[in-house]
Amino acid sequence: MALWMEAGSTPTTENEKADLEAISALKESAAIEFKEQGNECVRKGKKHYSEAVEFYTKAINQGVLSDSETSILFSNRAHVNLLLGNYRRALTDADESIRLCQDNVKAVYRAAKASMSLDLLDDAKSYCEKGIKNDQSNEDLKKLLKQVNSKKQEKEQHEAQVSRALVEAKTCLSAIENRGVKIGKAMYRELTGLKKPMLDKNNILHWPVLLLYAEAMTSDFVEDFCETDMFATHLDMISFFSVFISFFLFLNLISITDYLCSVHFLSFLSGLNMFSEDSPPLPWDKNNDYTRNVIELYYEASSGTPLPRSRVLQYLLEGTKGSQAETSGEEDTSFTKTPSNRSSGMVKVNERRTLHEVLKEPNFVIPQIPVFYIVSKRSKFYKNFVSGKWSPPS
User: Fold this and answer.
1) Mean pLDDT of the chain
2) Mind telling me which SMART domains this protein's record contains (predicted)?
3) Which of 10-14, 87-91, 285-289 has the highest mean pLDDT?
4) Is CB count within 10 Å lower at the N or C end of the chain?
5) How are beta strands 198-199 and 365-366 bridged, if at all?
6) Which CATH number is 15-140's, of 3.40.640.10, 3.40.190.120, 1.10.132.80, 1.25.40.10?
């Protein structure tokens, strides 16, 4: 009997031939039945999609249908896998369907859909163009091609933005490295938000700088402190407007929103000196101790460990299109080595020095943006501060 014949052997008797034809007919009937059951499961809806895949698989495994009929089975299974979100399996099935029958436009459409879902946009476009060439009136393929081209354009624009952000961040990082400046973990981000240094076209760094009044832990913020500027210039230019706004906030006469909008005008108001004798005191400065001639500026020495280069690059990329870019290729070493015998504590800043001259000090690790502390020699707090009895809150 044909049932006992070895695989691949040729029937030699009429009975064996008849048996094989009968078996083939049974398998063909089963394959068609499995196909119909699969179609019915698809019609029933989402809960039956997995069953549909099983039925189409059983139909394929009968191995007796023609290439064109088997192509339809693979195309149908690709359709269900698309509905299930199994895009890689859908693409594999669609490709097999196309291999068996080049004219199966539905399979080409499903291959294009799966490719687009897998972000294989060049492949998706190629499938669409192939399908339209075979069926020029196919509106579904034309519509899909428009979607693919639109997505390709968006992806190319995004990649260009990511590339530009990476170049800018790496250029800024190189400028910081070349200056011997060290970047550490962030402090006081709740006061500043996400702020970063920027490199201008003249290769000059512009830093956001936080000025903290250590005695009251209130602050002023300089959004653009050019590295070539002296500290004295900015202390002279912090305007009366800042005090004016703080005073009105203190009296609840303006909202926080109004305040946040108003700080953008600070850089334009450079003619007034908040520390002059004629200016009103800061709201918390009851004794008017903070006048220009008695204030001093300090930074905290050796306050942290320099971050590895890759971490600094990630920080510079935050908030940009390149924030999700792969930076693991960067050498994961300390950003700049710091002397092991460095001293800690508060270091007084000479106001006649530029920002760059201070930032490159060997014992200054910048907590992502430079932080400086303002104290008054006239205040009772001053003695505790300079003697090291005060330290920033952790």
Assistant:
1) 84
2) TPR
3) 87-91
4) C
5) unpaired
6) 1.25.40.10
Sign of dihedral through CA atoms 221, 222, 227, 229? negative
Residue with tokens 């952000």: 165
pLDDT value at residue 393? 77
Residue 111 DSSP code = H
Contact between 38 and 83 under an 8 Å Cβ cutoff? The reply is no
Q: Rounded distance, CA 106 to CA 62, Å?
A: 23
Strands 218-226 and 198-199: unpaired
Distances (CA, A) of 155 to 115, 151, 318: 15, 6, 20
Q: Give me the residue spans of the domains in the chain.
A: 15-140, 178-238+273-386
Q: Answer positive or negative: Cα dihedral of 233, 301, 202, 198.
A: negative
pLDDT of residue 9: 58
CA 287, 291, 293: angle at the middle one, nearest 5? 135
Give the range among 180-184, 333-337, 353-357 with minimum mean pLDDT: 333-337
Asked whether the beta carbons of 30 and 57 are under 8 A apart, the reply is no
Q: Kindly report the CA angle at 186 between 183 and 191, in degrees rounded to 5?
A: 135
Read off the pTM: 0.68
- State the Cα torsion 270-272-273-279 to the nearest 10°: -150
Residue range 196-200: mean pLDDT, rounded: 95
User: How far does CA 385 lie from the centroid of its chain?
Assistant: 41
